[in-house]
Amino acid sequence: MKRLQKCCCCASTRTGTLITGGLGIVLSIATIITVWVVERHRISFKTFIFGEDFDKKLLSLDIPRIILTINLCFTILICALLIVAVHKRRSWLMLPWVVLGIVLAIGLLISILHTSISFYLHDTNNEVEKYNDNILATVILIGGLIYLCIYLYLWAVVFSHYLDVRDEEERGRYRKAPYKR
Fold first, then answer.
1. Is the pLDDT of residue 21 over 90?
2. Largest CB tally within 10 Å, which of 3, 7, 51, 103?
3. For the residues 59-65, what does the mean pLDDT come to?
4. How would residue 67 be classed by pLDDT, with cut points 50, 70 and 90?
5. pTM for the complete prediction?
6. What are the boundaries of each domain within the chain?
7. 98: which residues sit within 8 A by CB, 6+ positions away?
8. Mean pLDDT of the chain
9. Three-state SS for 48?
């Protein structure tokens, strides 16, 4: 993979990495607030492993919300670690975000495809409801893929900065240019 030199054609990869870490924290906090404020019947959680009765029992105990909140808290922690790593110029502190980022991208792609296909295949006798499901599936598919592309670009920015910092660490303290000390 070719390294990126700039973020959005005007900022350095360092600035792009800081923005990505801050954006991850803000979006995680917004998602936690949304999950706990929106009414329960508007959010649907399914395990796909157990039966529908077990899913309803889990939902009544708020277990999916708690698990999602814990995951988002770890995301906040890893994004904060990314920001600290940029300031201290430590590549090994960036590594958890880089690994988590590519895993989340794969999960996001699977989620987008599963959700849109589920709406496309939703069986109903009502033509208006079928039409609305098809529109919603198309919006989820196109919007999700656009979001995935933006996410992968930001991941590439962070990965490029990670490689730059790692190479700088490998060169050693005395081999750096004087203006970078």
1. yes
2. 7
3. 74
4. confident
5. 0.80
6. 12-173
7. 155, 158, 159, 162
8. 85
9. coil
